[in-house]
Amino acid sequence: MRGPGDDPTLSEAELIGRRTAWFKVYTRQRNVFAPTGGGPCTCPCCGHTTLSERGRYEICEECGWEDDGQDDHVSAAVRGGPNGRLSLDASRSTTFTETDARSAA
């Protein structure tokens, strides 16, 4: 199934090939995991203790970051996974800018 951002000039086979290649690279990333039951854990984006575990795609209730295991060692990388086109650094910057604005109001 084609998505709205897919290149219409690609054949189905080319599209599947690109998606498969992206998935292989994405799943080879070094991720941070915490064992189940070891929580609560802090969100890598906002730092609040909102996650029951790390690296298991839980969404932070404070900032909305989906924890895919990305952390400081690759915080500038845009992985293109659940957090779209945001790196952890960019999301942190946005989160803290919004927090500062709310605090000043």
Automatic annotation (TrEMBL):
This is CPCC family cysteine-rich protein. Residues 41-93 form the Cysteine-rich CPCC domain. InterPro entries: Cys_rich_CPCC. It comes from the Bacteria. Residues 74-105 are annotated as: Disordered. It comes from Amycolatopsis speibonae.
